[in-house]
Each structure stands twice: as structure tokens, then as C-alpha cells.
Design goal:
By secondary structure, the chain is α+β, with helices and mostly antiparallel strands. It contains four helices and 21 strands. Strand 13 (176-185) and strand 14 (188-192) form a beta hairpin.
Length: 332
């Protein structure tokens, strides 16, 4: 009984503290407009403020001018859009964040479940058509260098005797352009990068040496501080940011073999957006991150943006292969 009473007491205190946090201020209006008045009679000015004014556990972000009045239906001095109600709008969605730990836990659980279910459903499709764009900028002592990569991947019949795929990668780095093409059809693997060669290899063996990772669900490690919304087309949208603390350790667990120097990076900002279409498939993933790398006492800034489109997931995938002429045969 004592344990139950103690639990009820803690729960009551938490409810009171949550209510006071949600309603610690109030909206006020006069002939000049709206402002937010805190419990101590102060008000925010020349700043953004996250406010859960309806007490639903999710706060919206508002900008108040130098006199403390809410900006509505305009662009803020720092270049962001607010709607007619004054809430920050990004890519057509009102941005929100959890106003208390319980709301954060609930929305994170909802977002993770949605992403895991969509990832699983998309990953078991017999084929996919995926376009991925990667942009990177390197900054060092006032000098900026850029690099980009565009990848087109089509496959069908994965893990079956009828497996086929086509992978085309076009990259541009420091003024150098390169295109690499590989494909598998008719039990033969073709590669065109620094030379053109082919080798006959069975589907099961080919699966072990695929030149691409199955591109589903790899952004799940970043999901934190979630918002789940729905756009006008009926797509579910997961918006997220990631805490940078210890993230390098988590990424090393996933990508250590591919990026052995990952621990040298310090992450400063990570944001992303995932679109799950009305049929429950992932149709788009975007990721934006900033980091710095220090080596031998010198630091270089790195920014990266990734946009990954899954074209018509669930539809039959047809592949138009390049000519197989001119490839030199090698023994597997």
C-alpha cells in the first residue's frame, strides 16, 4: 500500500508540474497585436519562443518582434516563415516539439514505430528504384571545397535466381567528374569504372558481393526529438533532430568498417525528414548534418546533405541495361 501511495503522490506532483509548465503564461492582445505574457509579467521580444498554448504536450515556435508582438503571415528577420497564426512553418508543416518528457516519450515511440514498420515493409519489396543525391562542403581556413554524388539504383528479384540490378554513380569532387556503372543480368556481373570487365557468378554468390547496401532503414540511428505530422497528400512525415553526444560511437558500431576514421569527427547539428506514403512505404528520406574533423591539430568543417527518393515503391521495377559489348571476361 505504501508503494502505491508513493506512486500516486509522485504522479500527482508530476501532473501539477506539467500543468504549470504548459500554462505558465498566457496570450494577450491589444490594438497592436498579440504577445505572450509569462507568469512573472515579462514577455519575450526579438526572439523565438516554444509555446504549448493549448496544453496538448506539443509546443509550436513563435517569433516576437523588438516590442514583444507576435509576427504572423510573414518572414522573420532571420529568414524563417510563420503562418497566419504566427507558428513556424517549414516545408509546408507547422513545426512542433514535445513540451515535456512524457510527450517526448510518446511521440518518439510513435515515430520509431512508424519508421520501423515502414522500413520493414519497404525492405521486403521484390524490387526498388532509388535515387540518392549527396552534397558535401569542406571548409578549411577560409577555403571551401565541394563534392557531390548522384546514385541511381534499380533492382528486382533480390535473393532469388532471377535477381537483376543496375547501379550508376556519378560523382564530382574538387573539379574531377567520374561515372561508374555496374549491373547484373543473365547470371553475369558487369562493371565499368576504370575498365570494363565481366564475370559469370551465380545469384547466391553475387548476393555476398553486392556493390550496394540495401538502402532501407539506415537513418534510424539518428531519430530523436521527433515530430510526426501528415501532409496534404496524406503522407506521414517524421521530422527529427539528433543529439550529438556519443553519436560517433553509435555510428562506429554501424559504419566502423566503412569509415574507420569516423571517431575523429565531432558532430554539431543533425536534422532529417522521412516521408511514409499512404500505402505505408518509405518514399523519401533527407538528412542534413554538420561536423568538424580534427587531425594533427588542424580542424576542417564538413557539412553534408543527403536526399534519397524511393520512386513508386510497391510498383513493378523494369530495368533498361546498357550494352554488354566490349567487356573483358575475368574468372570468378
Amino acid at each position: 500500500m505504501k508503494k502505491i501511495l508513493r506512486l500516486l503522490t509522485v504522479t500527482s506532483l508530476l501532473s501539477i508540474s506539467m500543468a504549470s509548465a504548459a500554462f505558465a503564461g498566457t496570450w494577450k492582445q491589444n490594438d497592436h497585436g498579440w504577445w505572450w505574457q509569462e507568469k512573472d509579467k515579462t514577455y519575450p521580444s526579438s526572439t523565438w519562443e516554444w509555446i504549448d498554448s493549448d496544453g496538448d504536450g506539443m509546443a509550436e515556435c513563435y517569433y516576437f518582434d523588438e516590442n514583444g508582438y507576435l509576427l504572423t503571415g510573414t518572414t522573420t528577420p532571420d529568414g524563417y516563415t510563420v503562418n497566419e497564426s504566427g507558428a513556424w512553418v517549414d516545408q509546408g508543416l507547422v513545426r512542433q516539439r514535445a513540451a515535456n518528457p512524457f510527450a517526448a516519450q510518446a511521440v518518439n515511440k510513435k515515430g520509431h514505430k512508424l519508421y520501423e514498420e515502414a522500413s520493414q515493409k519497404t525492405s521486403v519489396l521484390p524490387g526498388l528504384d532509388v535515387n540518392t543525391d549527396l552534397w558535401m562542403t569542406f571548409s578549411y581556413e577560409g577555403l571551401e571545397l565541394s563534392a557531390s554524388e548522384h546514385t541511381q539504383l534499380k533492382y528486382h528479384g533480390l535473393n532469388t535466381p532471377n535477381m537483376e540490378f543496375l547501379l550508376v554513380t556519378t560523382s564530382s569532387m574538387f573539379g574531377l567528374d567520374m561515372t561508374e556503372t555496374s549491373f547484373y543480368t543473365g547470371g553475369c556481373y558487369y562493371a565499368d569504372d576504370y575498365g570494363k570487365y565481366k564475370m559469370y557468378i551465380g545469384p547466391q554468390d553475387m548476393m555476398q558481393y553486392l556493390p550496394f547496401k540495401e538502402p532501407i532503414g539506415e537513418f534510424g540511428v539518428f531519430l530523436d526529438n521527433l515530430q510526426v505530422a501528415e501532409d496534404e497528400a496524406g503522407n506521414k512525415i517524421i521530422l527529427y533532430s539528433a543529439e550529438t553526444k556519443d553519436l560517433d560511437k553509435e555510428l562506429n558500431k554501424l559504419y566502423g568498417d566503412e569509415m574507420p576514421s569516423l571517431s575523429e569527427f565531432q558532430f554539431s547539428q543533425i536534422n532529417g525528414r522521412i516521408t511514409v506514403n499512404s500505402e505505408g512505404y518509405i518514399s523519401n528520406e533527407t538528412l542534413s548534418l554538420s561536423m568538424s574533423m580534427t587531425e594533427e591539430g588542424e580542424t576542417m568543417g564538413v557539412s553534408m546533405n543527403i536526399n534519397q527518393n524511393y520512386n513508386n515503391p510497391g510498383q513493378t521495377i523494369s530495368i533498361e541495361f546498357p550494352s554488354t559489348e566490349g567487356y573483358e571476361g575475368i574468372v570468378y
